[in-house]
Amino acid sequence: MKRRKWLFPALFLLLLLAGGVSLLFGGARLPLARLHAALMGRDEAAELILWSLRLPRVLLSMIVGAALAVAGALMQGVFQNPMADPHILGVSSGAALGAALGMALFGGVAALPPLAFVFGLLAAGLVYALSRGGSTVALLLAGTAVSACLSAMVSMLMLFQREGLERVLLWTMGSFTMAGPDRIVPCLITTVVGLLGALFLARDLNALQLGDEQAASLGVNLSRTRLLALLIASLMTAAAVSMSGIIGFVGLMVPHGVRLAAGPAHERLIPLSAMGGAALLCLTDTLARSLLAPMEIPVGVLTALLGGPFFLLLLRKNLKGGHGLGL
Fold first, then answer.
1. Which of 67-81, 86-100, 161-175, 237-251 has the lowest mean pLDDT?
2. What 8-state DSSP symbol labels residue 90?
3. What's the whole-number mean pLDDT along residues 37-47?
4. Is the separation of the CB atoms in 235 and 76 below 8 Å?
5. Among 124, 142, 176, 312, which residue's CB has the most CB atoms within a 10 Å radius?
6. Sequence-ordered list of residues with C-beta below 8 angstroms from that of 272, at least 6 positions apart, any chain
7. Whole-number Å distance between alpha carbons of 231 and 125
8. Third-level CATH fold of 2-319
9. How many secondary structure helices (H) and strands (E) does the chain include?
10. What is the per-residue pLDDT across 268-308, written as a single tens digit (0 to 9) for each?
11. What is the DSSP string of 253-285?
């Protein structure tokens, strides 16, 4: 219990540290002296880096990280499976298809979130219908198949948008290069609303861990809870994908790690996952900007390099146990 009490302040301090490090490092280093000068208005170049480039990226990466981590926690609760994740189950690919359609048909940012939400929700519903009552393998196969089909459709759209091919390709690998108020504000509003909705469902999600019969006997409306959780998870994933592109495995790694440290109760799991996801993606974006500077690595590439081995280890561990991966 003492360890759990320290998790919230520890993750909060980690989040502050991640933000501070991210402001200092990147393609152009910003030492503390120049950062102070920028804050005091005495260094125009440092001011430009801080306010126009660095700070918007820090904020958007934190918001997107929080959204993806909470979406992963919700999906793991709905599917009763720690392998569930918006990226693995095809929700990110569905949202990406919707956002790509928005870019192709309408352009701009305003049309992206609604279409991303609709297609992300359709992908989540399709995976849920295909894998309902099945094993972990059925869930993963359904998610892989749906994700592959949707990714192929995104590739087809890219062929018809050759003039913007480089921009769309970078977006499909995840990037915060276009961070600004027009992306930060709608993503922040969506994430806050989703976080509040997730906390509202926390007790019902806890009951689902006891099994459907036990949860129903406690007065939980199973269909409504699952539908609302999928709606919220899809909404948060759509907001993240439409503003930053496809960034995988955050919703897998963070909730799983938090669950091991803090237990399965969603009252703790959801807010701690939000902070952990924000810190992880902020630090990952800092590495993406710094490792090969001045060239930038797409942040989705780094999360895949981290999350891929994590996913394989988790899959091997649970399949070796020979059970259905219930939470």
1. 161-175
2. T
3. 86
4. no
5. 124
6. 7, 8, 11, 258, 262
7. 9
8. ABC transporter involved in vitamin B12 uptake, BtuC (1.10.3470)
9. 15, 0
10. 999 999 999 999 999 999 999 999 888 889 999 999 999 98
11. HHHHHHHHHH-S-HHHHHHHHHHHHHHHHHHHH
